[in-house]
Specification:
The structure is a homodimer of 337-residue chains.
Chain A lengths: L3 H8 L3 H9 L6 H13 L3 H7 L4 E6 L12 H13 L3 E6 L2 H6 L2 H8 L3 E5 L6 H5 L7 E4 L9 E6 L1 H14 L5 E5 L5 H16 L9 E3 L7 H10 L4 E4 L2 H13 L9 E6 L2 H5 L5 E4 L2 H16 L4 E6 L2 E3 L16
Parallel strand pairs in A: 1-2, 1-3, 3-4, 4-5, 5-11, 6-7, 6-8, 8-9, 9-10
Antiparallel strand pairs in A: 10-12
Chain lengths: 337, 337
């Protein structure tokens, strides 16, 4: 860990100037401040500084995720995080981000400049600049649904996808389904990959064949159903598991368009249990991710990291919610189509 | 959840008698009390009662694990748990257990009778009676190194074995070792199974062959080295990874008995970083499990479960500790032996 003096030496400037840069004094230029901050980050000064400040400020960065009303995936996560943070007397700022912001400034510099002791990142993908930078960060950081190897300052919070998928397969297997299709989320996502692996191993565990013609990657939006449901139906699927409730809503629409009924001809299962799940026609059987608990757990994890408890992964239980979009399998006659 | 009245109805006794049984009043017989408690547990009354009591009492059950002095594996785990519990104003009782105790009374009944709101189980195996009962318990419970499927009241805390094993393989691979042996712990252990799987996948990831002649299960004691080290040496191992520091200490003794040197002829890596690791000859390169953090995290998890945050798994980072028991590979001439 560098000292202020070492930063001053490296830049050939006075210690007082470094101190002004770090503390955001108004009598140095913005360029000089940026230089001081970048150098401080580069020399590993960041976490030391943040521990020394008495402020208890953390932030939530959100990208590619709706969170502004209760219907949306991110809403309760943010609420849960804030609840737990408030109980421990931490201030939380929500900062919507985008690629420009990530290119403009390094993650550690942003955190140092704004005096945050830690961050929770929602909706980022493994391709985001800031996520790349997390392999080296010294700032306590929690990622939803993403995992960074070998950095003790970064933790991963999520739902146990493996148990979730297994609960869904178990349910369909008990209903007599054998030709189970799986419409996954987007390909470049750790969660999609976990769900794919979990689907294969749960099918195998249940003595069922995971047919490659019945497994597709889509996107986490209803619209992707159009591209894949026709193939699933042609290939004899009697049940379709979806990587999200939104995908499932698109699947139901598409199945009905083909003149088939949900659940009488094709059972459909979602994932997440968003508020819309219960109000679809028919109400959706799904795997619940408890989003308030995800938020609370993210704060627990972040609080641990800030206090040097190097938690790597924290997974919540997935809960099976049975509604009306699944029914016993009656083998479809393919000539119906 | 049953009410006191329902328990009374079921047993055909007065509500006041049920109440006395649940609260341990002295004017009913021990037999009647046991009957009331067993019935209450059976009818799902346990967790309700425990939530209603204002006492903040949890307990640690320990079996097959030494914890009484700082040299031993369990010591810092208990300390870490107590530290975190004290900070949140919970009382902790440490209860050494054995098979007799588990046979004498059901887990839930024991918890209800003693007014504990939750438990942390250390050193139990999947074959213990109480662990079997955990599939159905409604008492918030955390297991070290063991996982119970599909029960939202039970969580698993441990170290990320996969990353730990991968760090060790990475280190040996960088030193040029190819014939890497793995002396695992006992076979009926979830952790041993995880480490086995992790070893295979890490070797594969590094482009190395996991040779079945170089993989054995032992026990978590030094003595097991005698049975397996001779075979490893005969089969050309230049490095031996061990599932614990105690196993590694036995391995070093055994390697030396064969007229070979550690690390010049054979590199040895442990797991755990117990206090003895640094004082072995040579000081042991190992994978550290931070036991204080395991204890702290176990409490965090238990606190979550008590407050209905259904955490399933909480894993800590494994840390690579380089000392002097590993060195660059110089291929051994098998005719040396």
């Amino acid at each position: 860990m560098a000292t202020i003096k070492e930063i001053a030496n490296k830049l050939g400037i006075a210690v007082s100037t470094v101190s002004k840069g770090l503390n955001g004094a108004s009598d140095i230029s913005a360029e000089m401040r940026q230089l001081v901050l970048d150098t401080a980050v580069e020399m590993g000064y960041a976490s030391k500084k943040m521990k020394a400040t008495g402020t208890r400020k953390v932030c939530i960065f959100i990208e590619n995720m709706d969170y502004e009303n209760i219907e949306q995936f991110g809403y309760e996560i943010v609420v849960g995080f804030k609840l737990s943070a408030a109980r421990r007397h931490w201030d939380v700022t929500v900062v919507p981000t985008n690629l420009n912001m990530q290119t403009a400034e390094k993650f550690d510099t942003y955190m140092l400049k704004n005096g945050y002791s830690g961050a929770f990142l929602l909706g980022f993908t493994l391709h985001d600049d800031w996520v790349w930078q997390l392999t080296k960060t010294t700032v306590p950081t929690v990622l939803l649904d993403n995992y960074i190897e070998r950095n003790n300052h970064v933790g991963y919070v999520g739902t146990d996808n493996s148990e979730g998928i297994d609960l869904a397969v178990d349910h369909l297997n008990n209903l007599g389904h054998k030709n189970i299709a799986f419409l996954n989320g987007s390909k470049n996502s750790m969660v999609s990959e976990q769900r794919y692996q979990s689907f294969i191993s749960s099918m195998t565990k249940h003595g069922l064949t995971a047919d490659e013609n019945l497994i597709e990657y889509g996107y986490y939006v209803p619209d992707c159903a159009k591209d894949h449901v026709p193939g699933f139906i042609r290939n004899g699927a009697t049940a379709i598991m979806c990587a999200s409730d939104l995908i499932a809503s698109g699947v139901i629409t598409e199945v009905v368009k083909h003149g088939l009924r949900v659940p009488e001809d094709v059972s459909v299962i979602g994932f997440d249990d968003l508020p819309i799940a219960a109000s679809l026609t028919p109400p959706l059987t799904t795997i619940r991710q408890d989003r308030t608990d995800l938020g609370k757990s993210a704060f627990l994890l972040l609080d641990g990291l800030i206090h040097n408890v190097t938690i790597s992964k924290l997974l919540l239980r997935a809960k099976f919610i049975q509604r009306e979009s699944t029914a016993p399998c009656k083998s479809r006659d393919l000539s119906d189509l």
